[in-house]
Structures are given as C-alpha cells and as structure tokens.
Design a protein that fits this description.
With about 250 residues, this protein is an alpha/beta fold. About 45% of the residues lie in helices and about 20% in strands.
C-alpha cells in the first residue's frame, strides 16, 4: 500500500519515531527534529498528551503535526495503561477518540488496539467509512505466545479489515524472538500483499527491529531521546543498520 509518497509492505522497513511529549510546543519541536533527521513516519502517542480528553486541543495538534510532516506519514496511537501506555481509558472513551481522529481526516494511519474493543471488525468498518487507514495492533507485554497463536492474531487482524497488522511481544529467551520472526515470515509467505509490523521488545528483541526486510515487517520504531517501548534503537543507529542490511541484499 502507498501512503503519501511512501510505499508500505515491501523492501526496507520505514523508520517511525514516536512523539512522547506532554505539551504542544515540545511535541512540535520533537516532530520537527525527527523529520529533519530523516524519519519516514511519526507516531503521536496521544496517551502521553497532558489533556487527551480535550478534543479541540487535540484537533489543533493533529493539524499542526500534519503540516510539519509533509510527506512523512503520521500515525496516531492511544495506548492504555494495561497495554503499556500512560493513561487509563474506558472502552467508550477509546471508541469516541478513534472516531474523532478518523473524522478529522488528519491521521494517515490510526492504531486500533484490538484487545481494547469488543467488536474489532465493526469498529474498523466505521473507521474505514470515514476514510481512515487502520493499523490493527495487539501487544503482549509480559510474554511471547507460540508461533501459531501469533499467526492467528495477525490473520484475525486481516479478517477484521485492518489495513496493516501489528504485533509486539516481550521475549524471555532467544526462542521467543524466533517465534515472532517465524510468525512474521509465515504470514508474509501466505499473504505476501498484506503489510505487517512486528517486533519483540527489550534487549533480546533488538534484532527483530532491524530485520524487517528479511522477515517481512514493514515498519520499525526508533527513538530520539525518549522511547515509547523497551528496546527501541536511536534513530540514526537504526538507519545505519537498515542501510547495511539493504546493501547486503542488493
């Protein structure tokens, strides 16, 4: 799939920088710095925002971020506390937020945590009707399920209509990392046209953040200062490693 001038789902993974600042001015500064440093996507982590319930302020931030982004993709994400985020949110509030973001037309991609909603397919259908591209995501912050279970999760996201399937796990051994990579590779073999974003978190999982071109993950998350999840590499380090891998595959 193509968003703006970026092609997602083939070749080298795009590098996305999370924005985890509390107020508007620092969000804009971080966004400008990331864009100037070569980020191909920005993720606004809305759960870090000091006033996530104030829709008028959020709409203004979205508009200004889109102006800063230009051809850089803007992904919007609200991660709840049980999913590793900064704030609690009810299902009703979460659904309202998703619909408001989609209705604004300012988010190129919108993360939908499928474990937070009762009927993912219906919610994704509503978001699509507003013209929104959706990343269906699921996070395992304490464990790594077996490869078969991870494949089932990604297949379910595709079945529910998510434009991209995203999966993050917490490994406790190298075999856990292999389970995540195997699930990614098998999904790409079965559904080569379906974009995937997968990662194993923490130090053990670093290899999964830079091997997407080999195994089939289309985006990796890298930091500029603050991280939004354990194991994220600094932006420039991630870019250098991805360059070397791409060169070796030519």
């Amino acid at each position: 799939m193509k968003i703006k001038q970026q092609t997602i789902g083939i070749g080298r993974p795009l590098v996305c920088v999370p924005l985890v600042e509390l107020d508007e001015n620092n969000i804009y500064k971080a966004a400008e710095s990331a864009v100037a440093s070569g980020a191909q996507a920005l993720e606004w982590r809305m759960d870090w925002f000091a006033q996530p319930g104030c829709w008028n302020r959020m709409r203004e931030v979205l508009h200004n971020l889109q102006q800063i982004c230009g051809e850089v993709i803007l992904l919007c994400t609200f991660r709840s506390k049980p999913q590793g985020g900064e704030r609690e949110i009810s299902q009703e509030e979460y659904l309202r937020l998703l619909l408001n973001i989609s209705g604004s037309g300012q988010a190129d991609l919108l993360d939908v945590e499928v474990s937070e909603i009762a009927e993912p397919s219906e919610v994704i259908r509503q978001l699509h009707s507003l013209g929104q591209c959706v990343v269906g995501s699921r996070h395992y912050f304490t464990c790594t399920p077996e490869t078969e279970k991870l494949q089932e999760d990604l297949t379910a996201m595709q079945h529910w209509g998510a434009d991209i399937g995203k999966l993050a796990v917490m490994p406790h051994s190298p075999m856990d990392v292999l389970a995540l990579l195997a699930a990614t590779a098998k999904m790409k073999e079965i559904y080569p046209q379906y974009p995937l974003i997968t990662m194993a978190m923490g130090g053990l999982g670093v290899i999964s953040r830079v091997s997407g071109e080999i195994f089939g993950s289309c985006m990796t998350f890298a930091s500029m200062g603050k991280t939004s999840a354990p194991g994220q590499l600094p932006l420039q380090d991630a870019r250098v490693i991805l360059d070397k891998i791409s060169e070796s595959m030519e």
